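Q: What would this chain look like folded?
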Amino acid sequence: MSGAKRFVSGAEIADYLLVNALVDGVPTFFGVVPDATVSVIPIWDTLGLRATRSQLLAFDNTVLSGEYRGRAPGPGDFAVIPAGLPAISLGIADAALDALVEHARSRVILGKPLAHQQWVQHEVADVQTKLAAAHALYDCGLAEADEGLPSFFPTLVRSKYLANKVAVEVAQLGVRVGGASGYLKQSPIQRHLRDAEAGQLMAYSTEVLAGEIGMEVLGISEKH
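A: My prediction, written as structure tokens:
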């Protein structure tokens, strides 16, 4: 097999790779032990999620052994990668909210902590409620997957969409509450915003997901 795959998190330290390739037109998984035919090309110099180091993997006539060939994916199989993506944004949102709350409690404005200002209280109530709803939807999707229900994938699609949007909203509020202090590179507040924005770009992006969800709700088929 020859080709390349972009954005492979952990590629630099992986002892094993799980590769999905077309065999006679059918998607098939193979286990691959990295050797001289597999090279890591550093491309990960990003604004956010820098620690994931999702580099490019290049394959040059890499042998796909039948011994390590898996079966083709089938209907109802649990989609592992999409299932994990909402958790990334939810974790970022949780961290952003924690940093926001800590700053609001400790920063004194006009003789009182910033947390005493009503606009901060109202905005925090709004994002925390949305974040709780996003967590609940994600838990619902995982429960449906555990039970083998076909509805799990549409639920996880909505979960990623909501988690991505909420994470950005929480992080943006963190910057507003953090003010100039939160805008400094040394502050975690600005990093949360950069990380949250990255979540929206992971496949599938929020724009693509919105289109899929909208077509489903409106009963629009891709064929028409």
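The longest strand covers residues 17-23.
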